Structure formats: C-alpha cells, structure tokens
Amino acid sequence: MSEDGGGAPARRGRGAARAQSVAETAGINLYAEGSLHAQVKEYLSGPGDRFEVAVEGKVVDLLKADGEIVEVQTRSLAKIEPKVLALARSGRRVRVVHPIAALSEIRRLDPRTDELQSTRRSPKRGDVYELFGELAWATGLVAARNVTVEALMVRTAVTRKNDGSGSWRRKGDRIVDRELVEVLGSRAFRTPTQWLALIPKDLPPPWCSASLGEALDIRTTRARLILYCLARAGLIVECGRDGRRKTYALAPRRAQKCNQ
Fold this sequence. Notes:
With about 260 residues, the chain is an alpha/beta fold. It folds into two domains: about 10-190, no CATH class; about 195-260, Winged helix-like DNA-binding domain superfamily/Winged helix DNA-binding domain (Arc Repressor Mutant, subunit A). The protein is built from eight helices and eleven strands. Strands 1, 2, 3, 4, 5, 6, 7, 8 and 9 form a nine-stranded mixed beta sheet that branches. Strands 10-11 form a two-stranded antiparallel sheet. Strand 5, helix 3 (about 80-90) and strand 6 form a beta-alpha-beta unit.
C-alpha cells in the first residue's frame, strides 16, 4: 500500500517535535479543526516546524523547517485550491496532504449518556483512487508547479451518535469526531511522470474509462475521474470515442518527451 514504507502508529515518539513546534497564531483556524486534522498535522511535524504560521498573508497549517508548506485537508480540496495555487505561484513549495481511511472502526455513543455503546469494523476500504473524487473539483492542483499532492492512507476511528441530527443515509447518526489511529502509508504526486504513472505502462493508448478501470480493478466511474483530472491538467488529451466513452492519449508534448 505504501511507497514510503510500512505502517506507523499515529504516535511515534513525536515528543521532541511537539516541544519544538510552535503554534504562532494560537486559535486561528483551530476553532473548527477536528481530531483527524489536528492529529495528521502533528504526525507530519518535526523539529523546527511551526503550526499556524502566516505566509504571504495566508495562515498555513504547517511550515516545515526546510520552508515547505503543508496543508492538511480531510475533505473538499476545492476549498484550499486558490490558497495553495497562490502560494505556489509566489515560489513556495506546497504539499497538500489528504487523509484517506483505508481501514476504519465505528464507535457508537449512547445519545443520552454519551457512553460507548458498541464498536465495529467498517466494511468500507479506502484506496488512493479516492483522491480523484476530490481532485475532480480542484483539478488546478494536478501537476501544478511547486505543488505536491499526497494521499495519506490511514486507519481511523469514527465516533457516531444517533441523536436524529445526522444524515438520512446514516439513519440519523451524527458523526461526532474522526480520529487518527495509525498511518498505513502514502503516495505522493508532484511531477507529470508521477501523475501519469496512475496509468499502467502495459495499458496501450487510447485509454477509456472502461479499459483503465479494468486495468486498475476499479469501477468505470472512478477511472473516468482519473482521466478527467489528467486531461484537465493537460497531461493527456481527448482523441476520439469508443462507443459513448471518450478516449485519451498522451498530450503531444508528453508523447514527444517519451519518444526522445
């Protein structure tokens, strides 16, 4: 699952990092911060890093000691796209980290006493391709100069309470909090080559959602999002149709580089 190594506990001896990390603007952007967001920030921090720092007039989640900006976004990448691109255009290196729950457990609270009623494993299994459900609304982040997008695969604990105020899909359950239990791995995308590596090398063009979905063993609708994002970034181009499905090939400048 991981390109960067095996799983790591959420707490892995970060005491020194916590002691040296400084929240320079205490309270800014923290009032709506959930546990998962805060815990991922702490997991990513190290000695000399600073939390909630003003950079170019914008408050960022984490400023690394080497100057890299880290923005953690648990959902809706579109909300931070303008901020990230503005920072990147100013010459700053920005890493957008999006946690994806590869594994999760559901903790249910008694709606009257808040006592823990039950714990069960969620049948849902997240994967790196979930990233594109968010990127479809923030395609400017794909292969943008000075921008790295990282899918952080995690195990989470989701606490719910059936107080009738939650989604009808969850039969009134309200999500009280999401917590980080363990980091399982990650996959980062920065260069055009890294983004295009999502398409298997042994899958010949032209590509369509059906052929890519079969190659990656994912649904056609999910494969379509990947192709859409890569096309919006100019890495691939529409080149025809296979029935009702659009087909794609490498953008001419990318194909030329590959043939050199």
